[in-house]
Design goal:
The protein has 287 residues and is of the alpha+beta class. The chain has 10 helices and 8 strands.
Amino acid sequence: MKSQQTNIFKFPISPLAKAGMLIKNMKVSGHAAEHDHSKPHRDDHYLLMIATAGQFVINIDFENNIMKGPAMVLVLPGQVHHVVSASKPMGWGISIDPTLVDKEFQLILEKGFRKPLSLDKESDFHGHVITLMEQLEKLQTSPVNVYAVRASHSLLDALIGLIAGEIASIDTGGKSKTNRAAIIEQSFMQLLKIHYKEWKHPARYAEELHISVAHLYDTIKNITGDSVSTYIQQYCILEAKRLLCFSKMTAREISYQLGYEEPVYFGKLFKKVTGLTPLQFRQQYRD
């Protein structure tokens, strides 16, 4: 049986971070880990891993992701993750305060960057990413003048913009969406992250967005393929999975924690979404 934690630890960005970001070179052994990356945990910031060589297995929300350099992967704030294994790692890990990431880029990355992205060494994209990372690392270790932080933020914005553009070009899905639809989707997702425990009905989100429930439903359905109710349920069930696997809370306690006043209803909903009862899911993952 896997070892259990009493809570899912959530770590803030390192105090070593300068102006909202911290770059760690995987090849430099002098970087002391501030927490055990092999144990499941959350961060309150983005973690972008860019591997130039080596092989990694990183578990993100119950799925092992195999990454063989050159490649990159993004861990979102709040996702439970841990490094399963790493062999001859080379590259960088960069912790990024969410306030430094453009809102439009956030939407693209959080929707489309769900798997490791393999990189073509011969591509311009790969070359630009490596160049930007090298410059960012140099500015962090040897700031040249009083505007070094501003320069670093500009380089970071360029890096994230390039990655968002690459993801967007891959993940179009044959669907186009207007700016208005994108704004509605982004606003809905942001509200869901904040209020998923209290707001379980689409009408509450529509009210906050000052649109009709039908408009919200049509927008989310056209863009994602799922209904608003399904999105809300899936978000809550994902958090339930995290708590079942990485805490000692009972299913009843988790039900209340997530805003479900009837544990029986929560159990039925969990089984409808996952095919397992909460207890079965916990046993399956821990055994």
